[in-house]
């Protein structure tokens, strides 16, 4: 009997919390949050991955004084060790650039 009562109380609390959030924070109304905040630029996944990889290459070249061959070997090893989903995204990225 106490389990059922506790479940009902928690369910009511969750429903009241959602309603309170919707009425108090107008930014949580779906896409309205993104429309109100101009500083949130929509960066594509490919652009962000490309930027990260370029920064990694620059840092490795600058800090470790790697040659082009060593850098390419490292990047190939790095990409080979990524999960398949990311490898597919990077393959598309390499084909586009």
SSE string, helix = H, strand = E?
A: HHHHH
- Average pLDDT confidence is 76
Distance between the termini: 63 Å
Radius of gyration: 24 Å
Overall domain count: 2
Could you name the ranges where pLDDT drops below 50 across 5 or more consecutive residues? none
Range of strand content: under 5%
Number of helices: 5
Secondary structure class reads mainly alpha
Number of strands: 0
Percentage of residues assigned to helices: over 70%
Note the main sheet: none
Query: What general outline do the C-alpha atoms trace?
Result: elongated
Structure in words:
This protein is an all-alpha fold and 97 residues long. It has 2 domains: 2-36; 45-96, no CATH class. It contains 5 helices and no strands. The protein has helices at 2-24, 32-36, 45-64, 68-80, 84-96. The longest helix has 23 residues, at 2-24.
